Amino acid sequence: MLAKLAHIDSRVIFAAFFIVVSLPLIFPLNLPLNVLGWTRQSYDELQKLAAGDLVIMTMQYSPALMADSHPTAVVMMKHLMQKNVRVILMGDTPDGARWATLFAKEWEGKGKTYGVDIVDLGFLPGYETGLAAFVRDIPKTMPRDARGNDVGSLPIMKGIKTVTDVKLFIGHESGSGRNYVRQVSPYKIPVVIGCMTADAYELEPFLQAKQIQGLIVGLRGGAEYEKLLGAPGAGLAGNDSQNAGHLLVIAFVILGNIGYLAERRNKARQGGE
Amino acid sequence: MKQLPLRLGIAICGLILLDHFLLINLLRNLSKEILDYAAIVTAFAMGLGFVSLSIRHYKAIKARREGWLYSTILVMGLLSFPVATFLFGGLRGRLGMWIYDNIYGSINATFYSIQMFYVCSGSYRVFRVKSTQAVVLGIAAMLVVFGRTPALEGLWAGFPNLADWLWKVPGGGAQRGIVIGTGVGTMAAGVRYLLGIERSSTQ
Amino acid sequence: MIQGRLMQTFTFLLTLVLVVYNMQRYRKRDVPYIRRLEPIEQINVSVRSAAELKRPVVMHVGSGALTTQDAVQTMAGLAVTAYVAELSARYGADLRVPVIRPDVFPSAIIATRKGYEAAGKLTEFDPLKTVLFMSGDFMAAHMQILSIIQEEKAYVAILMGSFTGDTNLMGEGTKVGGADAITISGLARITHVAFFVVLTDFALIGEELLVAGAYLSKDRASLGSIVAQDWMKVIAVVLLVAGGIMATFSSASSLISLLSS
After folding, report:
1. Cβ-based interface (< 8 Å): residues of B facing A
2. Is C116 in the same domain as C22?
3. Stated pTM of the model
4. ipTM more than 0.90?
């Protein structure tokens, strides 16, 4: 009987996972959440900014990676807008540019002035090569914003030539976080990266080496940031789901091993007979 | 003559490589031009892929092969976005953006979330105590998962620190070893391609 | 010289010199000892079995492009593609080479064609039937590839190249939904290689993938370049140990400044 636990149909696993992960989204569990040092470091870096400071925020993630990265981008944007920091939004992938447009529209609707408080530069083509050119000469690389305006005519872009003219560079990566380390960090301006969970330990050595000043990891990082800012959102909501999913994985692994050991014992008994 | 494309490729790659190390304006401008051409060639390759995809699915529809209805939906999807954007407001027009946000974005996110089911079934299938190595792997993996589950911190507050230690010290050490090997391998492989020794994907 | 790239230049030139030296050295000597790479050896066995059982072989080089830092992994995957194509043509196996990136598509056609040519079966090569452009979109393409593997009950799925978030999907997707394909994988991306190692039956880790092309060619000069890689690793280990000793007893900052100059 116990041996059957070693061969649970994958459809049963999928159904159980669906139920366990969806329920906390409908009935929040408000599970406890400790804030990790990385997120606190990133939060402190943004806290250093003053009203009127200029920041670049770029996004790479696609809708597929929205669950992991978008809560972080949303809460950081909220933090920047609360502090009346001016933000240059852009995407270093076509999908990322879409989030820049959505953020610009959202905050324009909430009272921010486009071209003064925020600007959407759109898609920066060329990936790392494009980023290398961008940090060296911003107006030349992106002469027009996403709405077709000449960047030179926008008050927010006045006097901006290179990346050293901004106070902070924020990149929401989806696999190419090293581009920011290679191309932006040498200019000695603070860099904060919002990364996918899988890339956290690839980028962590750069945090230790002080090549980047902050790292916010995945959905959990976004949830922690929301907790620090006191602005609950999709991150904290997703945190409960993620917890429940982890617990289910642990449960299935334990059940699988119980089944496996029972099966092995039965085979040994049959062999002995 | 047969060697000309290979030699041209090697020369161009050499130029771009030199641009990475030397600060010469002529080289920089030349390198930028070449990278622009590479982007144009990639766009042509997209056209080639479009043609291949269309022909394959058109043949499936014409022959009414199994799944031809899905091929019809694919071809309709393939054509609808360019038609919608060309006729109604361009790439950033209302219809184009509506299709992107409500169809592409939603489907993309849905497909990616399918992975989570595979994580669960994969963990169930793989973490079995079949050998000493498997036991060590399983225990380490479970401890890391415990450390990433705040709900379990009530059991023992040390789980997050243990998970961190496991990932940074033994895991990090192994990872950095692989990264060094991969880095060296990438350089050597790059040199092999630059010298034209490995040519399996070129004429 | 661009500031901050002196050491990079030196390292590249050293690699170049060592590779050329070892290639010349082994042209005239016995083939250097390269340990057996079990996943590569399994490819031959699996493709032959697939042909006998009349089940398809799927060879996938991942979602990397030829214009990014992962290009080397994709090209290593293409080298394996040529080998798999040769075996498939020789044994009469039904080969599918799904491709995601448009810039990889023409190279995949060339690699597959070369394989058929090496087996003397060029007339049997139909690019439209064998090399399948799936879609430029990552997830859509992988769903199509999994549907080929699951619905057509592929016998073996060879996943070697540049994979990112698709490692989990491909590693587990080839085992559920009616499929039970043998999976042979290879990846040099550290963030995702662990998924392939646990989920697939055979896995090449890190630089093992990058030497696949040279290993398969059995060409002395190419194998000599693998020896050069090992010499570079020895130098890296010496620097690591030196740095560790310096950091333990005094300070490694002088070594760090030298290496980052």
Report:
1. 32, 35, 39, 92, 100-101, 104-106, 108-109, 111-113, 116-117, 119-121, 123-125, 127-130, 138, 142, 145-146, 148-154, 160, 167-168, 171-172, 175-176
2. no
3. 0.82
4. no
